[in-house]
Amino acid sequence: MFNSKRVGIMGTGDIAGTMARTLKGMKGVTCYAVASRTYEKAEAFAKENKVKRAYGSYQEMCMDPKVDLIYVATPHSAHFENTCLALEYAKPVLCEKAFALNEKQAAEMFKMAAEKDLFLAEAMWTRFIPLAGKLKEILSSNKIGDIMMVTADLSYNIAWKQRITDASLGGGALLDLGVYGLNFASMVLGNDVVNISAVSKKGDGGMDMQDSITLSYRDGQIAVITCSAISCGSGKGFIFGTNGHIEVENINNFESITVYNNAGIKEGYYKKEKQITGYEYEVMSAINSLNENWKECPEMPKAQSLEIMKMMDFIREQIDVKFPQDDDNLDEEQSETSESVESAETVEEIIDEVTESLSEEVSEDSPVDDSNGEAEAAEASDSEETEETENTENSDEEAEEKDEE
């Protein structure tokens, strides 16, 4: 498509498949390439999702001059390394949540993007959906008066998944599920938090299996966030005001917003718009930012991502949950990444090879070429997933990438 932005996906798990399906249904953007740690996985993903290019390493895709934006869909334990690799090759990046394992990593990622004058944003999709904008509009109208309290829960029984139990993968309920509640509270009350109190139940591996988090704000408001990987919750958010309350169905992809007055009488109801998957809004924002030469998305700017990471660091300290990467020397890792980029054959030689390979392609929109094992691609087997499955993507979709990669 003329002037269409070409997206390269890092990772081949279910969340990457959801993004591929999303891009397929959008205009002005193309799911152009996919990369995995093995070519076989990348090729299988490309065939299933009708993606043009498949790469057996992340570095190879980063060196493809035709890739305009890289979407990082690997486990959040790999976000720092993968994002920095893409930035080293001067690629704009849209990185899945949780953005990083800690604030230190997140700050280094944004610092690198700024030094290279590149776009970088966190794909916290609930910040981008239209109903999030509608919620802000309702709150601004003062329909429920002054907001005094927020509660939010996101809980699924997923304790058996490796991404929850493994500290090296950034395990626990907080980064996987609690991040949604924290973002919900932030969307409603902002970030002027003066105190955080958290308790948790840990699993055998020392990761938090469920958490209860209380945020106290300077003006007296309170937010209570719960998340659990060992039980099933409502997934709802409630906003309590002096003249009524608001109920949000499904805080990780708003299904609906219902407004009640003090008597409990419904005064407003707003239903979720028709979606491809819900990911399209973050992609549209990223593409618009690239077109406008912005370095972040206004819906989820750098400062917001850093604030949420800072809160999660503080919470983990309170509940005594540590990741091995918390003690990493990021300067040394950055140096190693840069040296790897510089020593790759030479960069110029490899880019020449990639460019020569690309010049042999017949058309811009053809499926994976014969050199990459072209076959007639079938529609994604999960294209008929129910809306409920898509709305709970954080619970199930990232797990496959953790198992595969």
Could you describe the 3D structure shown?
- The protein has an eight-stranded mixed sheet, covered by helices on one side. A six-stranded parallel sheet has the order 3-2-1-4-5-6, sandwiched between helices.
- Helix 4 (79-88) packs parallel to helix 5 (103-115), helix 4 crosses helix 11 and helix 5 packs antiparallel against helix 10 (302-319).
- 39% of the residues lie in helices and 21% in strands.
- With 405 residues, it is α/β, with parallel strands linked by helices.
- The protein contains 14 helices and 14 strands.
- The protein has helices at 14-24, 39-49, 58-62, 79-88, 103-115, 130-140, 162-165, 173-189, 280-291, 302-319, 330-343, 347-359, 387-391, 393-404; strands spanning 5-10, 29-35, 53-55, 69-72, 93-96, 120-123, 147-155, 193-202, 208-217, 222-228, 237-241, 244-249, 256-261, 266-271.
- The chain folds into two domains: 5-125 and 280-301 and 324-404, 3-Layer(aba) Sandwich (Rossmann fold); 127-271, Dihydrodipicolinate Reductase, domain 2, CATH 3.30.360.
- The chain is globular, with a radius of gyration of 21 Å.
Relevant terms:
14 helices; 14 strands; 8-stranded mixed sheet; disordered C terminus; 2 domains; alpha/beta; 405 residues; Dihydrodipicolinate Reductase, domain 2; 39% helix; 6-stranded parallel sheet
Structural class: alpha/beta
Low-confidence stretches: 342-405
Going by CATH, the architecture of the largest domain would be 3-Layer(aba) Sandwich
CATH homologous group name of the largest domain: NAD(P)-binding Rossmann-like Domain
Overall CATH class of the largest domain: Alpha Beta
Q: Main beta sheet, described?
A: 8 strands, mixed
Q: Strand percentage, roughly? A: 15-25%
**Total number of distinct structural domains:** 2
Query: What's the rounded overall pLDDT mean?
Result: 86
**DSSP, total strands:** 14
**How widely separated are the two ends?**
32 Å
**Count of DSSP helices?**
14
Whole-angstrom Rg? 21 Å
The CATH topology of the largest domain: Rossmann fold
Q: Give the CA-based shape.
A: globular
Binned, the helix content reads: 25-40%
Topology order in helix (H) and strand (E) letters: EHEHEHEHEHEHEHHEEEEEEEHHHHHH
- Side-by-side strand order of the widest sheet: 8-9-10-7-11-12-13-14
